[in-house]
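Dear colleague,

Thank you for sharing your sequence with our group. We've completed the structure prediction you requested, and as agreed, I am returning the results in plain text so they can be pasted directly into your records. Please verify that the sequence below matches your submission; if there's any discrepancy, let me know and we will rerun it promptly.
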Amino acid sequence: MNGTLHADLPQLAPEFNARVLHDVPMSKHTSWHAGGPADLFFAPRDATDLASFLRQLPPSVPMLWIGLGSNLLVRDGGVRGAVVVTHGALGALERVSATRIYAEAGVPCARIARQCVKWGLGPAEFFAGIPGTLGGALAMNAGAWGGETWRHVVEVDVLDRGGTRHTRTPADYDIGYRQVRGPADEWFIAARMEFERKPGANEAAIRELLEKRRQTQPIGEWSCGSVFTNPPGDHAARLIESAGLKGFRIGDASVSEKHANFIINHGAARAADIEAVILHVQRTVAAVHHIDLTTEVRIVGDPA
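Please find the predicted structure tokens below.
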């Protein structure tokens, strides 16, 4: 562990020193099942507990927030600083008016889809196709099947590095396709979202969409979901497949035979193998199609 962090740790309150874990393998907390250790790992009890932790954490300690660990590649050298996991803590989901809901950042997107159907609200079925939590969906404007997260956001609650809570509106952010830019050193902890009344909504639509997903994507295998964003007017999967890259393999990582925009860990892939496949795909598609693919997945941490 970084020596600076050892020096900083005594500044935490005793209750946090006892609850902060050290050198936690991130392979246990990512959907790719790869990645080195986090120096510090903290699971808050709720938003108030998290705010207290932030107030205790020295400003010199870097931070990474995660939910379900999808859309994330942690390099084999691990993560310097503190990892905060919101899933299991920030889990409130409630209806606050006829058409508005309140959801905390740790709520799985699939749960939002199912609950909105029960409440007769939509269109929210697309959330079932996002393999992560609301916090991650807010951070990257995640979407599926033509729907996008921020189209429904009325306002968000965030915590800053000092543990202070703020409420912001979409006007405070530059929101685009799979990207959201806003104030630095703030993290989403909740959102209020607006939908329309859909009295006839039922789970059949979600089941139909999930069945389509199962037929076309490698569900059940270790992946991060889509690796690359779709370039304007095209699809990353089509470009990768037409470049002859389905099945391309380095170590135990390969481009999926079922859907070319997925990279699979077959069981023993290192993060370096996965990243090498990503780079090879980018270089090959650039050479064949003269298009630069942009990663949708977030790559963090130090090399081995």
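Summary note from our side: The chain is about 25% helix and 25% strand.

Kind regards,
the structure core
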